Amino acid sequence: MDGISDHLDHGLQIVFIGFNPSIRSGEVGHHYANPRNNFWRILHNSGLTPRLYDASEDGDLLKLGYGFTNIVARPTRGIDDITREEYNEGRELLRSKLELYRPQVACFVGKGVYTEFSRRTKANWGFQGDVPPEVDGVREFVAPSSSGLVRMPMEEIVGIYRRLAEFTQSDR
């Protein structure tokens, strides 16, 4: 199954970076399309989007200043299906994308996505101000995974994403 298209452009406020697309996302060609994934509800409830968007509208978020990519492009059932080689290749491709497009913020949707990219062993939720960014000028933000398998309370997840919404609103 082919990967799904990135939604990237110059001048974006945020690029959301996932591990890789789900099988459902691969089938329909849209980011965060699995109905058990809470991504779109989290964006809306945190104030990042003015309304609840559907995965089929992922390209429309470019108008809001938001883009999408993944560290690995190949859809899988889970992250356990991603190979070490895919992570190594994906890390370099992601770095190139961030260097080219230079969003204000790279939002890693899951600590594991960030640690795979940065090769750091730990990360806190939110902005990673205690370490230099992997790409100069691109702030790094670590948010909880939006997977329905995450056991963190939804209000806590939304609260972390709300910090990102407050940043984008203060930047306008």
Automatic annotation (TrEMBL):
It comes from the Bacteria. It is an enzyme of class 3 (hydrolase). Its EC number is 3.2.2.28. This is G/U mismatch-specific DNA glycosylase. Keywords: DNA damage, DNA repair, Glycosidase, Hydrolase. CDD domains: UDG-F2_TDG_MUG (cd10028). Residues 8-154 form the Uracil-DNA glycosylase-like domain. InterPro entries: MUG/TDG, Uracil-DNA_glycosylase-like, Uracil-DNA_glycosylase-like_sf. Transmembrane segments: none annotated. GO terms for molecular function: hydrolase activity, acting on glycosyl bonds. Pfam families: UDG. SUPFAM superfamilies: Uracil-DNA glycosylase-like.
